[in-house]
């Protein structure tokens, strides 16, 4: 299938824009790949230190027999339901490596926080910056430089982007990402959302709300909505960095361990076949565009408009929101998964999952097929689903066939929408994005007076006081990377949904983030430049008429141009800055706040 001309044009635009930085990046990883093995080029004391802690047989194998040594970078903790299964993975990986004549070492553990725990609290202000912290922790582990390949163990929101950024700074290593899968379905996401809205109105108490939440989040595995964590897994499949079809097999499934063992065999297979497929080569311009297309086709998390800019930059590739917007004009919406529908990711997997989406996009010319992946068979391998082999106890991959449920997955020739789920908004309030795939069509245009808030707590207080019972656009500023680390404002979804449910025309405008689980209320988010950097949200005043027009791609303050030009921007107060600077470790992230790039530059703290 010939590649769609818009997909090709966007790819070429990225390639031209990225020429110097990509070329320099490739030169660096090729130089690193050309060196002797770590155990051969290092001094004897270095080598002794590197392998002092491993069993004697493994030591002999890696040093004397020059066998491959795999780095394990593990995001395990049992605070996160999605990462709790990783506690047992290193022993499985080491066992399989030994069976294959290789060795494996845990190179590092990386921090992994749960946004579900920190939503609406001060801890959420560490969330975005935890991505770069994870990247640095990955680099620290790999900096021992005695590895021939790497396995990345992580799933959730900032963890996969952080691992990917870190891995790309060691782009000479063949690298496979190892998922753990979603938890079995509990209380449906739709029912959970209803209880949250009732709680916001005071119609149910804490006991009822806690009971509903515990029925939704009830065991090991990722949350079952299609938020950032599960969008990560879709993108890893689209980029060819997983064992094919591994994303949404549940932790409790017996297939899970065999897929983990296959990840070891896959990494070693790259080395044994002498195929030059290090991660820095796999993640090229076409690979990044494939990830963007998969995100759009599934209505995935808005967080990736920040994360994948940072990921691309780690490989010397420069993308921006115009690229997402252009692709969104031609990539159809093929999936309806909560919050874009009622199905959860388990139902999505049962209907065909990532393999179905990738096949449909490839066949429509909306993904590049001529890309490297961690598998020799290329991206077509990712259009099949893993199962137990009928011949032995190993793995086999089966064709997916037609959608198992056309209310969840549809073919490219009959999509839910002819365009993707994201739109770029531009105007005198800056640049921002909106996730339209979850928003009712009659809410794609909102024009109403602004009510300005300096924190999400202030908005919640106004809602509880009954001050928001009208058409309005809630503007929450001082939420960007430089102001306070750009927290998600997902706690605002239930009250705004209540107002919308009462018939009021409401929207949110903010320089902060919304979760990948953001709902049906129109939200112009990631507004850049942020207010704390002198952005135009700092010029808005209560009562200003604001128009959010998703079809037209505009976000405008309908204020006379001469008056607008005369206005002086508001500034954060010393008290606000002081509040953002202390508590739950925020002091340690002051340098990141100072150095953070704008949202459209990936909010990177290391450039």
Automatic annotation (TrEMBL):
Which top-rank group of organisms is this from? Bacteria
Gene3D superfamilies for the chain: IlvD/EDD C-terminal domain-like (3.50.30.80)
Q: Name one GO cellular component term.
A: cytosol
> What is the protein name given in its UniProt record?
Phosphogluconate dehydratase
Q: Which PROSITE patterns match?
A: ILVD_EDD_1, ILVD_EDD_2
Which HAMAP family does this one have? Edd
Task: List ligand-binding residues for [4Fe-4S] cluster.
Answer: 156, 223
Give its E.C. classification number.
Answer: 4.2.1.12
Q: What class of enzyme is it?
A: lyase
Picking any one GO biological process from the record gives:
D-gluconate metabolic process
Drop me one GO molecular function for this one. Answer: metal ion binding
Q: Which PANTHER family match?
A: D-XYLONATE DEHYDRATASE, PHOSPHOGLUCONATE DEHYDRATASE
Q: Which UniProt keywords apply?
A: 4Fe-4S, Carbohydrate metabolism, Gluconate utilization, Iron, Iron-sulfur, Lyase, Metal-binding
Annotated Dihydroxy-acid/6-phosphogluconate dehydratase N-terminal domain ranges read 68-381
The Dihydroxy-acid/6-phosphogluconate dehydratase C-terminal domain extends over 408-603
Q: Which InterPro entries match?
A: 6-phosphgluc_deHydtase, Dihydro-acid_dehy_C, DiOHA_6PGluconate_deHydtase_CS, ILV_EDD_C, ILV_EDD_N, IlvD/EDD_N
Give the cofactor note: Binds 1 [4Fe-4S] cluster.
Describe the task this protein carries out. Catalyzes the dehydration of 6-phospho-D-gluconate to 2-dehydro-3-deoxy-6-phospho-D-gluconate.
Question: Which cofactors go with this protein?
Answer: [4Fe-4S] cluster
Q: Which Pfam families match?
A: ILV_EDD_C, ILVD_EDD_N
Named in its record, the pathway it takes part in is: Carbohydrate metabolism; Entner-Doudoroff pathway
Family, per entry: Belongs to the IlvD/Edd family.
Reaction catalysed by this chain? 6-phospho-D-gluconate = 2-dehydro-3-deoxy-6-phospho-D-gluconate + H2O
């Amino acid at each position: 299938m010939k590649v769609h001309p818009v997909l090709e044009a966007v790819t070429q635009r990225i390639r031209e824009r990225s020429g110097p930085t990509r070329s320099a990046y490739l030169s660096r990883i090729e130089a690193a790949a050309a060196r002797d093995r770590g155990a051969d080029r290092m001094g004897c004391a270095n080598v002794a230190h590197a392998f002092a802690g491993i069993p004697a047989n493994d030591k002999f194998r890696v040093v004397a027999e020059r066998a491959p040594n795999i780095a394990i970078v593990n995001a395990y903790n049992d605070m996160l339901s999605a990462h709790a299964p990783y506690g047992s993975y290193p022993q499985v990986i080491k066992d399989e490596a030994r069976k294959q004549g290789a060795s494996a070492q845990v190179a590092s553990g990386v921090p992994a926080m749960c946004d579900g725990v920190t939503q609406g609290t001060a801890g959420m202000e560490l969330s975005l910056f935890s991505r770069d912290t994870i990247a640095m922790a990955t680099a620290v582990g790999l900096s021992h430089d005695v590895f021939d390949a790497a396995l990345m163990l992580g799933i959730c929101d900032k963890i996969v982007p952080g691992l990917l950024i870190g891995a790309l700074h060691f782009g000479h290593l063949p690298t496979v990402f190892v998922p753990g899968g979603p938890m079995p379905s509990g209380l449906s996401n739709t029912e959970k959302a209803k209880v949250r809205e009732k709680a916001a109105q005071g119609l149910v108490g804490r006991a009822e709300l806690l009971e509903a939440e515990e029925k939704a989040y009830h065991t090991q595995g990722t949350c079952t909505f299609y938020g950032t964590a599960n969008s990560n897994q879709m993108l890893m499949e689209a980029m060819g960095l997983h064992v094919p079809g591994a994303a949404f097999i549940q932790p409790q499934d017996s297939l899970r361990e065999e897929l983990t063992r296959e990840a070891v065999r896959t990494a070693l297979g790259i080395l044994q076949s002498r195929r030059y497929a290090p991660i820095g080569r796999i993640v090229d311009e076409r690979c990044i565009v494939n990830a963007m297309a998969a995100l759009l086709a599934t209505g995935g998390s808005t967080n990736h408009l920040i994360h994948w800019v940072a990921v691309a930059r780690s490989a010397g590739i420069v993308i921006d929101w115009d690229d997402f917007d252009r692709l969104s004009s031609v990539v159809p919406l093929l999936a309806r998964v909560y919050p874009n529908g009622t199905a959860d990711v388990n139902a999505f997997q049962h209907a065909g999952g990532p393999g179905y989406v990738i096949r449909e996009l490839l066949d429509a010319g909306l993904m590049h097929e001529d890309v490297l992946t961690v598998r020799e068979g290329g991206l077509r391998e990712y259009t099949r689903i893993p199962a137990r082999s009928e011949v032995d106890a190993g793995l086999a991959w089966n064709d997916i066939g037609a959608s198992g449920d056309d209310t969840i997955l549809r073919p490219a020739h009959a999509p839910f929408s002819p365009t993707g789920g994201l739109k770029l908004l531009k105007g005198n309030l800056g640049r921002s994005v909106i996730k339209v795939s979850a928003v009712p069509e009659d809410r794609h245009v909102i024009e109403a007076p602004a009510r300005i808030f300096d924190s999400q707590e202030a908005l919640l207080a106004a809602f509880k006081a009954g001050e928001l019972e009208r058409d309005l656009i809630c503007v929450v500023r001082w939420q960007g990377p430089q102001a306070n680390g750009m927290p998600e404002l997902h706690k605002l979804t239930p009250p705004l949904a209540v107002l919308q449910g009462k018939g009021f025309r409401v929207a949110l405008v903010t320089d902060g983030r919304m979760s990948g689980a953001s709902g049906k209320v129109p939200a112009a988010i990631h507004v850049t430049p942020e207010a704390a950097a002198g952005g135009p949200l700092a010029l808005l005043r209560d009562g200003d008429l604001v128009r959010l027009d998703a079809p037209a791609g505009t976000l405008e303050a309908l204020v006379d141009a001469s008056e607008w030009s005369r206005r002086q921007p508001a500034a954060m107060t010393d008290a606000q800055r002081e509040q953002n600077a202390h508590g739950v470790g925020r002091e340690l992230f002051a340098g990141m706040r100072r150095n953070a790039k704008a949202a459209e530059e990936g909010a990177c703290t290391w450039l």
